[in-house]
Amino acid sequence: MNERELMLVKSCWQTVAPNAIPLAMKFYDDLFEAKPEYRRLFSGDMNKQAEKLMMTLGFLMANVDRVDKIKDAIHKLGALHVKFKVLPEYYPPVQKALVGAIAQFMDNQWSYEHEDAWNKLISAVGDMMIEGTTKKRFSWKFWS
């Protein structure tokens, strides 16, 4: 990401972070509306899930200038998601719902530049998560 894109996601995060849990709940509502079959991946308390998502995004945003330094953590996050039966093709709809929820919490401050910057960031993180599943001869098999 270039400096302008980093500035856009950082300033956007500053705006939406105070509404972190409502934003996360909006994300999950939008995701499950678009992909109802994803709901089966979540069996616990969705408020706790929203907190986990926002803590993870907070960690990402605290390190957004040096994502390469947290690559191992992102790889581990990807490997963890496989335990929940998340497949690589699930990432684009998640990205769309997440960026859409952020946009809604930005109201009239949202621009195409924000959208492009967030899509670039979330896509890169998703790619790293998927990359993390290929470490140590990882297999996508959910049986055996």
UniProtKB/TrEMBL annotation:
GO terms for biological process: cellular response to nitrosative stress; nitric oxide catabolic process. Keywords: Heme, Iron, Metal-binding, Oxygen transport, Transport. InterPro entries: Globin, Globin-like_sf, Globin/Proto. It holds the Pfam family Globin. One of its GO terms (molecular function) is oxygen binding. Residues 1-134 form the Globin domain. Belongs to the globin family. This is Hemoglobin-like flavoprotein. It comes from Reichenbachiella faecimaris.
